[in-house]
Write a structure and sequence with these properties.
The chain has three helices and no strands. The chain has a domain at 43-80. The protein has helices at 24-39, 45-60, 62-79. The chain is elongated.
């Protein structure tokens, strides 16, 4: 038996059959991103990156962070 090949893709592209083109909103967001990137190589860029990484780490592990902070505060209060 010869397999039948379907020429149509089983998925649809984001353009939904129209020509793929950028929307004004996409261009605006891209422009804002590029403006932010061009301003960042300043003196505080490394610190800003570190703070952002720490924020993402803490927010994604909020329950664990609160539990560890409570444990740390509790253990410090026992010693003093």
């Amino acid at each position: 038996m010869i397999p039948v090949v379907d020429d149509k893709a089983p998925w649809s592209a984001a353009s939904f059959g129209d020509t793929s083109d950028t929307s004004p909103m996409e261009l605006s967001v891209l422009g804002e991103h590029l403006d932010a990137c061009s301003r960042t190589p300043g003196r505080w860029f490394a610190l800003q990156c570190g703070v952002e990484r720490m924020n993402v780490f803490v927010v994604s592990r909020v329950v664990t962070t609160v539990a560890l902070a409570a444990l740390l505060i509790g253990s410090i209060s026992i010693w003093y």
